[in-house]
Design goal:
Elements (H helix, E strand, L loop, with lengths): L15 H6 L14 H18 L3 H27 L7 H6 L4 H22 L2 H15 L14 H20 L3 H15 L7 E2 L4 E2 H18 L1
Antiparallel strand pairs: 1-2
Helix pairs in contact: 2-3, 2-5, 3-5, 5-6, 6-7, 7-8, 8-9
C-alpha cells in the first residue's frame, strides 16, 4: 500500500499495474454467445489475449480491433433491445435472441481495456486514450446503472472503477490535469458507494487520498487561470 508520504506532492501512484493484474475480472473469457458473430468476436478476443501475454502487443491490437469491428454492432443492438422497446430489433429476432446484453457489453468494454493495455505497452498514449475513452463511454450504457444509479451492483461498480482507472492512468502519464481532475471526481463519487471495495486497486488509494489529489489539482488549475 502506498504511504501517505507518496502524496506529499499531491501525485498519486500510477494504476497501470493494478489494471493489468486485475485480468479484467468483470468479464469471463469462457463466456459463450448464441449469436455466431458475437461468439467469433469473443474467440478473437481470446486469441488477442494470448498474443498480448506473449508480448506481441502490436499484433494483439490488430486482433482486438478486428473483434470489435465484427462484434460491436451486435452488442449495440442488444443494448437497444434492453433499453428501448421500440428498438431496431424485430419481433422475430427478439424471439430468437438469448444472449445477455450485459455480458455482451462487458465483452466490448473488456476488449477496449485489453487493447488499452497493449497500447500502453507499445507507448502509444494517444491510442490508449481513445481506447480508455471508449471503455468509459460504453460503461455509461450499463443496464445495471452508472456512477451510483439505482441499478448499480458490485459487478457494475468494479467495471466502472476499472474503466475510470484506465483513463486516470492515461491522464497521469500525459500530464492531462483537467481530465485527471474530472476522472478523479467520478472515482471519488464511486468510492462513496457502499460496496466492499473502498479503495482503488491493490495499491490501496483511499477516498481521502483521492480528495487530497483533487485539492492539489484544483489549486494548480486555478493558478493557471
Amino acid at each position: 500500500m502506498a504511504s501517505s508520504d507518496s502524496f506529499s506532492n499531491g501525485r498519486l501512484p500510477l494504476l497501470l499495474q493494478d489494471i493489468t493484474s486485475s485480468d479484467l475480472m468483470f468479464f469471463d473469457a469462457d463466456t459463450t454467445f448464441q449469436d455466431s458473430t458475437l461468439q467469433m468476436a469473443v474467440e478473437i478476443y481470446n486469441e488477442a489475449q494470448a498474443l498480448a501475454k506473449d508480448g506481441n502487443h502490436r499484433k494483439a491490437c490488430e486482433e482486438y480491433a478486428s473483434g470489435l469491428f465484427i462484434g460491436r454492432k451486435v452488442v449495440q443492438k442488444l443494448q437497444e433491445a434492453a433499453l428501448d422497446e421500440n428498438s431496431s430489433i424485430t419481433a422475430e429476432e427478439e424471439e430468437e435472441e438469448e444472449d445477455d446484453p450485459r455480458l455482451a457489453l462487458e465483452w466490448l468494454i473488456a476488449t477496449y481495456l485489453a487493447m488499452f493495455q497493449s497500447r500502453v505497452a507499445l507507448g502509444d498514449w494517444n491510442k490508449a486514450r481513445a481506447d480508455a475513452w471508449a471503455a468509459c463511454n460504453y460503461a455509461q450504457y450499463s443496464p445495471n446503472g452508472s456512477l451510483g444509479g439505482d441499478g448499480m451492483d458490485a459487478r457494475s461498480f468494479q467495471l466502472e472503477l476499472t474503466v475510470l482507472s484506465a483513463m486516470w492512468t492515461v491522464c497521469q502519464n500525459t500530464n492531462d490535469k483537467i481530465n485527471e481532475w474530472q476522472t478523479l471526481q467520478s472515482i471519488q463519487q464511486l468510492l462513496k458507494l457502499p460496496f466492499p471495495q473502498s479503495k482503488v486497486g491493490s495499491i490501496g488509494i483511499t477516498r481521502e487520498q483521492v480528495e487530497d489529489r483533487l485539492k492539489v489539482l484544483k489549486d494548480e488549475l486555478e493558478a493557471k487561470t
